[in-house]
Amino acid sequence: MKLEKKADKQWQRVIKQVGHCERCGSTTNQLHAHHIIGRKSVAYRHDLSNGVCLCAGCHTMSNWSAHKDRTGFLDWLKRNRKGQWAWFK
Predict the structure, then answer these.
(1) DSSP 27
(2) What pTM value is reported for the model?
(3) Cα–Cα distance measured from residue 7 to residue 74, given in angstroms and rounded to the nearest whole number
(4) Are 58 and 21 a contacting pair, CB within 8 Å?
(5) 19-52 pLDDT, tens digit each
(6) Do residues 16 and 53 touch, judged by C-beta distance below 8 A?
């Protein structure tokens, strides 16, 4: 369990190195690492292709966030992150 938490933190650090929200462009210090395929999927939990750097609003806070509007998020991914979309499909 302790090793998994370390791996989670490292995965988050790498994803957030982008330095801005990949959806809206915000450079806030409240950046989050979002899993495209949920964290419960052990096979993809630490795969870097499974991550997108999002601000708090785009991740969880707004009505069109990745967690509140999964379909909208996946539409955005399909239009804007073609490589990750292909990986996800």
Answers:
(1) -
(2) 0.90
(3) 25
(4) yes
(5) 999 999 999 889 999 999 999 998 999 999 999 9
(6) yes
For residues 9, 13, 15 and 16, what is the CA-based torsion angle, rounded to 10 degrees? 130
Q: How far apart are CA 70 and CA 64, in angstroms?
A: 8
Q: What angle do CA 4, 49, 64 make, to 5 degrees?
A: 95
Instruction: Give Cα separations from 81 to 12, 13, 29, 40, 49 (angstroms).
Output: 19, 20, 23, 23, 11
Burial of residue 22 (number of CB atoms within 10 Å: 0-12, 13-18, 19+) = buried
Instruction: Quote the CA–CA distance of 11 and 72 in Å, as a whole number.
Output: 24
